[in-house]
Design the sequence.
């Protein structure tokens, strides 16, 4: 067999593990956690008996983090069973920022986490190996016969079944894992929460324990320091304080926006519609559901069904439907509804519809990771030679949006994944067009091999968060080139040669989803949003009850000017009123007392604490209207 080990090639007669290969090639194993063998992740100790391209990965890689965290979930499960032997194991995946494990028949709270941590550290010190075992279905059912959750998982498993042994702990798992428990050098359990088994409210309530781990104590210390700072920027905390949104337990992953939250949300939609008009888009409205047949044609059912919601009518014998996880098939039905000419292209359709995607409950995160997604979605139908110019146009559109929120973009080209549809020629052309567009734009960019959508490569645009660190940047925009969708739906246009051709579809979402974008700007600004998008622009405060009539008059004039304003004419002290307005991040407090009433003026206090006196009301209103209309980031 021929092995390409990180660019160096050699033939071997006997199977070799990544650890053995590292020795053969004199490679440094320090910090390495897992191997990528062709496109599959392998345990460092697992033998390779076929031609392969091998790469060793550490914690700095996405895959390395995931493997360390998933292994840490096993260590936590082993510790819990030592302390609480009657608990039953559910599942324990790695998530974006750590790991969790679900347990049944386990009644603990946050105060119990320290004891579980201690037991985990004992297991780490034992240096127990993670040993991969291949089992038949019957063997697996016998080994896990006392755990109904594992038996339920096994019912859906076909073919080879794997489990991992760590000391005296055995768990069903596809793997891979770190070589031994000692690779976890620092860990912290974070919280206890409740969750339904498989996210189904009709099923058992599980106890979910969250944690995080690192290959060094210094990394844990840095993480804890960062988390302390991040808590000040947490959009969930800010959203609660400013009364913007809530995520009820009865509807996990589906936020409810309050009147103030809806105001911010609608400003984002208004911005999107204005830009879509500017850049030549026509708005369409698509249904929430469609027959599963449509999703089979589009390819979503085959590649995405685990993230889709099935909808079945109450009456029996009806066809099955699915909630739309994406809007693209509907726009192509409109494209097909009449004869199209090359002169009609580019044809741009925007769609502001809701989509639903099933995400694991443990991965849900306020507005940043949801199951209900209101996309700023659009599909552009172009000829192949129009792709690059259209993408450059989309970059301009992105600039228009990012400038309003002082966002700094990071460009990432995501190439063809292993699990994909379409011909290699299609993928070559699509990737080439994206790369050429990036080169022409002057943007620096990185490449994520294999991270494209199943139907096409894409440019993902990230924006820096409040830390300014690229590694914690938010994914915001996506531009995807799809040669497949029109072919699958047999959509065509008449070219200048008078022959039929399939258009190329560009999937585009510049703000991503409105909810997620709202969460991002809340975190980046700590809730001090630009004036134009704030749910309340100003609040009028009366100094005493005798000033209430004048305060009402001032309120009325500001309100009539189209400025979002509130009135606080309560009997509370001015100090209390100012404090309350500051906590709500209201940009301007309009204070009226005897002096202001007598002079027909106002005093204005900004949220940064500066106060100006004897201000002409109409001048203030005109100034506010100018800032709001121009959508200035800073006043």
Sequence:
């Amino acid at each position: 067999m021929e092995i390409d080990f990180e660019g160096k090639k050699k033939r071997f007669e006997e199977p070799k593990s990544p650890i053995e290969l590292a020795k053969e090639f004199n490679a440094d194993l320090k910090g390495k956690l897992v191997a990528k063998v062709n496109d599959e992740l392998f345990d460092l100790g697992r033998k390779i008996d076929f031609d392969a391209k091998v790469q060793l990965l550490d914690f700095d890689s996405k895959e390395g983090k995931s493997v360390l965290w998933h292994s840490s979930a096993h260590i936590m499960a082993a510790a819990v069973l030592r302390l609480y032997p009657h608990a039953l194991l559910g599942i324990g995946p790695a998530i974006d920022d750590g790991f969790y494990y679900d347990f049944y028949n386990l009644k603990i709270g946050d105060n119990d986490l320290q004891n579980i941590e201690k037991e985990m550290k004992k297991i780490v010190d034992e240096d127990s190996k993670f040993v991969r075992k291949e089992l038949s279905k019957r063997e697996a059912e016998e080994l896990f016969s006392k755990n109904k959750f594992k038996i339920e998982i096994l019912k859906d498993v076909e073919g080879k079944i794997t489990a991992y042994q760590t000391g005296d702990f055995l768990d069903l798992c596809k793997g891979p894992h770190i070589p031994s428990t000692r690779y976890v050098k620092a860990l912290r359990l974070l919280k206890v929460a409740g969750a339904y088994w498989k996210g189904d409210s009709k099923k058992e309530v599980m106890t979910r324990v969250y944690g995080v781990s690192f290959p060094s104590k210094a990394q844990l210390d840095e993480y804890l320091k960062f988390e302390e700072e991040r808590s000040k920027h947490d959009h969930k905390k800010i959203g609660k304080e400013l009364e913007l949104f809530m995520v009820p337990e009865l509807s996990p992953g589906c936020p409810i926006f309050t009147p103030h939250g809806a105001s911010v949300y609608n400003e984002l939609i208004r911005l999107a519609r204005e830009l879509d008009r500017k850049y030549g888009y026509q708005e369409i409205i698509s249904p929430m559901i469609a027959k599963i047949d449509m999703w089979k044609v589009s390819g979503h059912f085959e590649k995405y069904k685990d993230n889709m919601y099935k909808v079945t009518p109450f009456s029996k014998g009806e066809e099955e439907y699915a909630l739309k996880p994406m809007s693209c098939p509907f726009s192509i039905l409109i494209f097909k509804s009449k004869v199209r000419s090359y002169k009609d292209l580019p044809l741009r359709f925007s769609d502001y519809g809701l989509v639903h995607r099933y995400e694991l409950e443990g991965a849900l995160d306020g507005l940043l990771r949801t199951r209900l997604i209101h996309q700023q979605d659009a599909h552009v139908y172009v000829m192949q030679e129009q792709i690059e110019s259209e993408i450059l146009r989309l970059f301009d559109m992105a600039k228009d949006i990012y400038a309003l929120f002082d966002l700094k973009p990071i460009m990432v080209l995501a190439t063809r994944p292993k699990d994909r549809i379409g011909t290699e020629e299609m993928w070559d052309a699509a990737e080439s067009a994206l790369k050429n567009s990036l080169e022409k734009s002057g943007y620096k960019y990185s490449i994520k091999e294999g991270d494209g959508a199943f139907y096409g490569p894409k440019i993902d645009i990230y924006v820096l968060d409040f830390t300014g660190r690229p590694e914690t940047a938010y994914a915001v925009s996506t531009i995807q080139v799809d040669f497949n969708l029109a072919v699958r739906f047999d959509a065509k246009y008449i070219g200048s040669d008078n022959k039929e051709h399939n258009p190329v579809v560009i999937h585009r979402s510049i703000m991503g989803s409105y909810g997620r974008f709202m969460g991002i700007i809340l975190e980046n600004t700590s809730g001090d949003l630009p004036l134009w998008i704030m749910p309340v622009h100003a609040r009028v405060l009366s100094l005493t009850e005798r000033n209430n009539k004048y305060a009402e008059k001032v309120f009325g004039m500001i309100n009539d000017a189209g400025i979002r304003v509130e009135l606080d004419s309560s009997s509370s002290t001015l100090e209390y009123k100012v404090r309350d307005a500051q906590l709500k991040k209201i940009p301007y407090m309009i204070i009226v007392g005897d002096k202001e009433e007598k002079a027909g003026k106002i005093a204005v206090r900004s949220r940064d604490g500066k106060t100006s006196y004897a201000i002409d009301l109409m001048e203030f209103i005109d100034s506010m209207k100018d800032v709001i209309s121009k959508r200035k980031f800073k006043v």
